[in-house]
Amino acid sequence: MCSISGRTSRTGRTGRPRSAEADQAILDATRAALVELGWGKLTMGDVAARAGVAKTTLYRRWANKNELVVDAVAILFDELELPDRGDLQADIEDVVLQFGALLERPETKTALMAVVAESTRDEVLRTRIRSAIVDRQKRLVLLGRERAQARGELPPDAPGTEGAAAAARAVDLIFDVAAGAVVHRSLVSGERVDENWARDFTAVLLCGLGAVGRPD
Predict the structure, then answer these.
(1) Residues contacting 48, CB < 8 A, separation 6+
(2) H or E stretch covering 171
């Protein structure tokens, strides 16, 4: 996987096609620089030097540091996958453990905390985080609900526009609860997301899943 979809398109540009290898080198260099230097000291020039590319190559892909860092973080979250174990509880536990393991990695932890802290002062950056990371990862909730509904573990969505709106609210709420709990456990409390915690958290989450997604 590790696609870099969701990045702002640069229509109308001409020249040589983009190199996937160069993109990967740049994103890897960005995360390494964040771990070593932090947000304040990281520069586009430093990233270009670490990646072995010209600054012009970097700016052809990303207009500024904010865009670059968010994409460097987003590609890590694209590694998350929802397995199909035939049971909603097992599916959720698996992806929660994946998420916890991802947040234990220094490059993920440092990069995520850096962009979130900076976004409190930058609305444009906050919007980019929502589109590049949050909205993209809601795919896991959508897929999980669809599978659970097909297996009869969750009720189907109500018909019509009200049902669709209620389903969208449910997806948002489930994502907020799950992502918020794992991030708080890992980055705020500094505790591991282990199998026991994942099992207990999933049990709590499942108690409320049947109550969300209904029209007002």
Answers:
(1) 26, 29, 54, 55, 57, 58
(2) helix 160-183
Comparing CA positions, the residue from 91, 66, 103 lying closest to residue 145 is 91
State mean pLDDT over 23-29.
Answer: 94
Cα within 13 Å of Cα(150), Cβ side: 9
Q: CA-to-CA distance for 168 and 186, rounded, in angstroms?
A: 27
Rounded Cα distance between 127 and 133, Å, is 10
Q: How far apart are CA 196 and CA 188, in angstroms?
A: 19
Backbone φ and ψ for 97, nearest 5 degrees, come out as -65, -40
Residue recorded with tokens 């905390």: 113
- Considering the entire predicted model, what is its pTM? 0.81
Residue type, 205: L
Cβ pair 133, 70 in contact under 8 A: yes
pLDDT in tens, 177-206: 999 999 999 999 999 999 999 999 999 998
